[in-house]
Predict the 3D structure of the following.
Amino acid sequence: MYNKLILNEFTIFILQIYNIEAEANGHFIKIPDDQVTIKIGYYDFIKNQNGTVSKVNVRGWYNFEPSLGLTKFTNTENITEYEYDLTKDLDRMNLSTVLHRMLKLDVNFALHSIRVDWDSQNTRCLRINGTVSFNNLNNNGQVVIKLTTLTYPVTCDFSTNG
């Protein structure tokens, strides 16, 4: 049950990253260099020759970027938007059963933003690196969701929308 809740919250977060230009207050953009990486931590049952579980491996990690699960479309207002289905990417990698054994799900992302000061009319361009973690490391259903970000100034380059 709680893994479905994690999956729903995770999907909402992924969509917020990819749809940030259309939905955010302020000016945020995701340029081609701004990567999104998903990291799933899970456990595996190790079976012996008799087919019975002899050990549990809690160190399984898998990293990937959204691909088959990410769908780009143009809405009725002619704005590009995205949808995401994690299960399509997991199926592609033969990891569909991982959702039932998931202990941690991290999303690392990068975005850009522009700030304009009204009085001075100066612009500041920023890069935002962040991670959102869905942590169920105790496997007890009490999922801790944590967002960390690091924002730093970058040179404004309006020729590339960055």
